[in-house]
Design brief:
The chain is of the alpha/beta class and 110 residues long. The chain starts with a strand and ends with a helix. This is Cytoplasmic protein. It holds the Pfam family BrxC.
Length: 110
């Protein structure tokens, strides 16, 4: 099940408590982002042992910007990021966000 985050405090809590998790930067108005969200949801449903979170760009712009600066990942939307041990380990964007690419990233990091 996907969980929404909106704040820097929530992200910091995840980084401190979760060894591994995915985060999707999602635009509420972009059809490409909608397609990525569907793939991300499918991945999450099939991999319930891996926590999956998302943020809506329109609702959490400061958080999205902070992630880009803090982890030195050029902002894109949609964008999926795999965090391991508090660091951004892998990321991809746009049409490359598929159940297959997420599953592959997830298995490599085990």
């Amino acid at each position: 099940m996907l969980k929404k985050i909106d704040s820097l405090e929530q992200l910091n809590e995840l980084l401190a408590k979760e060894e591994k998790f995915f985060l999707l930067k999602h635009s509420l108005t972009c059809p490409i982002s909608h397609a990525a969200y569907v793939e991300y949801q499918k991945f999450s449903d099939e991999n319930q042992d891996t926590p999956a979170y998302y943020l809506a760009i329109q609702d959490a712009r400061p958080l999205s910007n902070d992630i880009a600066v803090r982890f030195q990942i050029k902002h894109e939307s949609p964008q999926a990021i795999l965090f391991l041990h508090g660091q951004a380990h892998w990321n991809t964007s746009h049409w490359k966000i598929t159940n297959r690419s997420l599953t592959s990233a997830n298995s490599v990091s085990k």
